[in-house]
Amino acid sequence: MSDWIKKNGMLVASELGKFVEHDLIVDTGINLDKFWTEFASIVQDLAPKNKVLLSKREELQNVIDDWHREQKGKEFSSSAYKSFLSEIGYLLPEGGAFQITTTNVDPEIATIAGPQLVVPVTNARFALNAANARWGSLYDALYGTDVIDEEEGKDISSDYSSVRGAAVVAYATKILDSFTPLLTGSHADVSFYSVVDGFLHAGDTKLADKTQFAGYQGDANNPCSILLKHNGLHIDVQINRDHPIGSQSRAGVKDIVMEAAVTTIQDMEDSVAVVDAEDKVLAYKNLLGLYRGDLEDTFEKQGSMITRRLNSDREFRSPNGDKLILPGRSLMLVRNVGHLMTTSSVLDQNGNEVPEGIMDAFFTGVIGLQELSGRSKLTNSRTGSIYIVKPKMHGPQEVEFTCELFARVEAAIDLPKNTLKLGIMDEERRTTLNLKECVRMASERVVFINTGFLDRTGDEIHTSMEAGPFLPKSEIKLARWIEAYENWNVDIGLETGMRGKSQIGKGMWAMPDEMAQMMDSKVSHPRAGANTAWVPSPTAATLHAIHYHHVDVSSRQEELINRQRASIDAILEIPLLGGRNLSEDEVQLELDNNCQGILGYVVRWVDQGIGCSKVPDINNVGLMEDRATLRISSQHIANWLYHGVCNEEQVMETMKRMARVVDEQNTNDPNYRNMADNFGASLAFSAACDLVFKGREQPSGYTEPILHARRQETKAIGV
C-alpha cells in the first residue's frame, strides 16, 4: 500500500486515517491529535509484550515437541507427561479460591439464559439480522424447517399449506401448554384472551401461574398481544382475527413470537476475511453503525427493494397498566482478533505492522463511546459496559496482557475502570488447563467463558503433533478428553462465581438446515449448565430458545456447583490411534472429507473474501464453516502426513479430485472461479495445499497467515 499519512511517527493507511477523522471520532470529545497520540503510545508500550507472548508459545511448543520425540518407542506415562508440563510452566500451579467481582453487567449476560448468535460484522445485512433476532416468529421457524416433518401432506411448498400450518400451530400450542399452562384445558381451547384487574383471563380459565403474565398490547378487553414470561424469557402471543392465520384460530392467534437471540457476537475474527485497510474500515464502519444505531442495508428480496435497520424497543403495558419497555435487539458483544496477527493498516515507528488485536481494542473502545456518551439512537448496554470477546489466548499471562491492554484503552479515552468487559474463549489447550488462573487474571472484568471446541481440537492436534497419529476426526469428538474439557469449563465457571454474573457458553450448531436434529441434541447445552450456546441463524435462535424453557439453567447450575470437578488427567489424554492400523478405505474416506471441506471453505475465502458461509460437505449437507473448522481439517491431514498414515502423492491426488467436486457444487455461483481448470493458477487451491503441506510449521496450527497472504495476492491482481 503506497497511500499513507503520518501520525505520531506511524504510517497509517489513508482510508483508515480518513475513517478515524471523518467518522470514528466525530462527536466523541476526542480530537485527532489525542486519538493518534494515545494509540501510538499504547502500540509502543504493548507491541513488544505481545511479541514476547507469541515467542513463549513457540518456545513451549518446541520443548513439547522435543519431549515427545524423546518418548518415541517408550511406554507413555501420563504422570510423567503431567509432571513435564508442570516443570516447563505449561501447566501452572492453581491458586486459592476466589469469586469474580465483575460489576455493571447487563441481565442478558448475567441472569438471562438464552441463545447467542455469532455473525460476520463485515456483512451489514447479516449483522442487522442478528441484532434484530432478539425476537423471532415461532410459526415461521417451524413452518420453514424440518422440525415439522413433511409426511401426510405437510409438505413445504411455494404456496401456503393449511395442513402444514395446522401442524405448526399444534406444535406451538404445545409449547404454550408446556411452559405457560392454564389452570384447566389447553391454549388451543381458548376463544378469547382478556386482562381483568391485572390478571390474564383465557376464556373461562386463567394461567396456572399468574406471575407468568408479564404484559399486553392494545385494549385490556381485547388485546392484540399477550406477553408471557418463563425462565426469564418472554413469549409474545400475537392476536389478530383479521389475519389469514389468526382467522383460523379460535382466539385469533396469528403468531407466537419467542424471545430468542438474547445476545449476539458481532465478529471481526473467525467468520470474516479482513486482510487490509479496506477490509478493516468496512468492519469498523459497520460496528460503528451498530453502536450508533444508524446502520442500514438495502437489498433486493423477492423482486422488491428492502432496507434493513435496527429494530426499536418493544412497548407493552404491564399487568397493572404501567408502560413496559423491552429491548428490541440482542445485546451486542464484539469479537476482536487474537494476539497473533498484525495489520498492514498501520506501521509503527520502526516500520513494523502493528498487532491487530491492539488496534481492535482501541478502536472498539472509541466505537463504544458512541453509545456510552448518549449519542446513539438506540441503547445496547443499559449498564454502561462494552463487551469484547477475546479469542485464541494461551494461558493466564495472555489474559493478563489483554486486561492490561483494556485498562490502557480505558485510560486513554477516559472510560471508567473496567468498562471494557472481557469474554474469554476457552479454545486453546494451555488456557483450558489453566482456566481458573485465566479467570483470576480477569476477575474484575470477565463476563464470559466459552468452549470453542473446534479451535480447541485444532490446538490439541498441533500441540501433540509429535506424539503420534491422531484418531479420525469423528472419533476425536467421542474421546474422553473432550467431554472432560466441556465439563471442566462449567466447573471452573461455577467455582469462580460466574453464576448470576457471567455467561458460561457452549459452541456452535454447524448444520443450519438440520433443525430437527438440533432440537434433539442441543438441549444438552443448557442441561450441561451453560446459560448460552451458539447458533448459526435467527431461525435457529428462535428454535434453540425452546431449550431454555425446557431447562431452568440457573437451577441446573445450582445442582452442578458442588459436583466433583472434571478430571484434568482426562483432559490431558491425547486422542491418538495408539498403534491401530486403519484400512486403506478408512484413510481415503477421511482424506476425502477433510480435503473437500478445506477446499470448499478456502476457495470462497481467498477468491471472494467470504469468511463464513454454509459450505456443502462431501455428502452435500450444508455446514457452517469458519477458520476453526479449517484449522482442524488441515492440522489433521498434516498429522497423518507426518506420521505416514498417508503420503503427499495421495493427498495431492485427493486435493485435485475434491477440487473438481467443489467446483461442481458451486456451479450456480456466478462469482465462483473453478480451481480444476488450472490448478497452478488458482491461488485458492494453492492456499489449501499450503495449509496442509505446510501445516506443521504454522504457528499453533493457525490458518490466518496463509489465508491472509493468498487473499492479499488475489486482491492485488484484481481477479
Briefly note the structural class of the backbone: alpha/beta
Strand content: 15-25%
Shape: globular
| Tally of separate helices | 25
- Roughly how much helix do the residues carry, as a percent range? 40-55%
Could you say what the CATH topology of the domain at 584-717 is called?
A: Malate Synthase G, Chain: A, Domain 4
Unreliable spans are none
Q: Between the first and last Cα atoms, what is the distance in angstroms?
A: 18 Å
Radius of gyration, whole Å: 26 Å
Biggest sheet strand order reads 3-12-17-20-21-22-23-24
Describe the structure.
A hairpin with a 5-residue loop joins strand 25 and strand 26. The protein contains 25 helices and 26 strands. It has 719 residues and is of the alpha/beta class. The chain is globular. Among the domains are: 137-259, Malate synthase G - maily-beta sub-domain, CATH 2.170.170.11; 584-717, Malate Synthase G, Chain: A, Domain 4, CATH 1.20.1220. Strands 3-12-17-20-21-22-23-24 form an eight-stranded parallel β-barrel, surrounded by six helices. The protein has a five-stranded antiparallel beta sheet with strand order 4-11-10-9-8. A four-stranded antiparallel beta sheet has the order 1-2-18-19.
Features:
alpha/beta, 8-stranded parallel barrel, single chain, 18% strand, 719 residues, Malate synthase G - maily-beta sub-domain, Malate Synthase G, Chain: A, Domain 4
In short:
By secondary structure, the chain is of the alpha/beta class. The chain contains 25 helices and 26 strands.
